[in-house]
User: Which sequence fits this backbone?
């Protein structure tokens, strides 16, 4: 599908997960493709998101593992943690992944411009040292952390800076109630930091199953994380000794060494020349697209977090793939957002697929809810007071499982497999007929027999 008169058939702005997938596949279909990236290859997920965050979760969990070992007969010397060593190991892994991503683009024949890009018009892209033209353009610039406007906000950091702290603070206040805030609360607590988490709502992780949210809050408090709901910051002041004072809207004050805001992300569209090229943005700055990821300008598309549809890395990849199939392979595809599994790498972790109990009831569906609440086998000897919660939401009329939810160790690994079954339309009777693997936590999903509501 060669475009005569243009430098490229496709120009992609942003080399994150969605942009890289679209670039590689389009090139494989014979298109002349270029991609521009002003930062490191791989986007937020590889450099400042999923990958380093999961590595930090692993690091923070060793504290529990060392404590648990005694219950199994191990004598462990008092462990010591080295933050700088973790950072160095993390940076080496990220550099390795950057190299792999760059190699994938090179291997596909994609031209990489390590430069900021801006639209001059619907077919022209300005780079740092030149202008190029393309018949089609894909915007895949992702999102960025949002900071509210309040006095002293310049003293706060975001998750971007959390991955590069020169040293661990003794105390930290994390502001936010989404998955990033919850995950970093567990990370810092596991690394020995005194953690307070503030959220303006009555309970964090809005949109996830209510029972799991309550159970997670109780578990985090058992880990000495100070959760304060219905709380919001009015101002931040730096003290002469370098510490910080947070004044809350309630009038209460908190003393801390570091404040991290994880109160949402916004589409990264500023300075791209989108509106000048005629691309419509919504009130939050997200690129408005149709079901095929096409913008208001017919030759410009957008995928990933910049569209603010479903902000998950695998979804961005799927959107990039669907875009290429539609535009370069004469195989029109819409991204499918039905029953997308997701996880929060909290401690313990949380994972879900399909409808929550609350969402099903709000749709006036007749449902049965099955629950299993138990202490993980590992903790019977470790002595740790951990709990696992599993739920199935079943539509009464059809018997189909329309939601599966879990809070507990390896929740993401277990729910990923169940998500395949839910997507395939599995019924509760199919769960009942399946033999469990014993002893395992996962077997509880096939042994729940009595609906609880």
Assistant:
């Amino acid at each position: 599908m060669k475009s005569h008169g243009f430098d490229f058939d496709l120009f992609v702005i942003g080399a994150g997960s969605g942009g890289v997938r679209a670039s590689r596949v389009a090139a494989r279909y014979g298109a002349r493709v270029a991609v521009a990236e002003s930062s490191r290859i791989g986007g937020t997920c590889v450099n400042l998101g999923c990958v380093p965050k999961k590595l930090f979760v692993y690091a923070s969990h060793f504290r529990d593992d060392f404590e648990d070992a005694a219950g199994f007969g191990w004598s462990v010397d008092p462990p010591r943690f080295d933050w700088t060593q973790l950072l160095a190991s993390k940076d080496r892994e990220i550099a390795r992944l950057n190299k792999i991503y760059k190699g994938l683009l090179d291997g596909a024949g994609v031209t990489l411009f390590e430069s900021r890009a801006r639209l001059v018009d619907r077919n022209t892209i300005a780079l740092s040292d030149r202008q190029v033209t393309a018949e089609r353009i894909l915007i895949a610039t992702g999102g960025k952390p949002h900071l509210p406007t309040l006095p002293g906000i310049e003293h706060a950091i975001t998750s971007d800076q959390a991955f590069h702290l020169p040293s661990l603070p003794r105390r930290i206040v994390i502001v936010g109630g989404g998955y990033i805030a919850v995950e970093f609360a567990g990370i810092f607590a596991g690394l020995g930091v005194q953690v307070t988490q503030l959220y303006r709502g009555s309970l964090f992780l809005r949109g996830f199953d209510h029972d799991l949210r309550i159970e997670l809050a109780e578990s985090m408090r058992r880990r000495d994380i100070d959760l304060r709901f219905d709380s919001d910051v009015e101002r931040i002041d730096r003290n002469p000794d370098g510490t910080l004072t947070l004044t809350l809207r309630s009038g209460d004050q908190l003393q801390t060494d570091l404040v991290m805001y994880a109160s949402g992300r916004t589409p990264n569209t500023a300075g791209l020349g989108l509106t000048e090229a005629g691309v419509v943005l919504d009130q939050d700055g997200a690129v408005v697209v149709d079901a095929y990821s096409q913008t208001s300008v017919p030759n410009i598309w957008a995928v990933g977090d910049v569209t603010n549809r479903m902000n998950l890395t695998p979804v961005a990849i799927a959107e990039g793939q669907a875009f290429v199939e539609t535009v370069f392979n004469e195989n029109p595809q819409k991204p499918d957002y039905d029953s997308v599994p997701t996880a929060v790498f909290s401690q313990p972790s949380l994972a879900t697929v399909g409808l929550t109990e609350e969402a099903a009831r709000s749709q006036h569906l007749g449902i049965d809810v099955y629950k299993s609440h138990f202490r993980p086998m590992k903790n019977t000897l470790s002595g740790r007071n951990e709990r696992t919660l599993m739920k199935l939401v079943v539509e009464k009329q059809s018997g189909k499982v329309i939601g599966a939810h879990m809070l507990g160790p390896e929740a993401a690994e277990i729910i990923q497999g169940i998500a395949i079954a839910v997507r395939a339309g599995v019924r509760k009777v199919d769960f009942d007929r399946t033999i469990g693997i014993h002893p395992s936590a996962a077997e509880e999903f096939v042994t729940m027999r009595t609906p609880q509501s």
Notes: The mean pLDDT is 96.
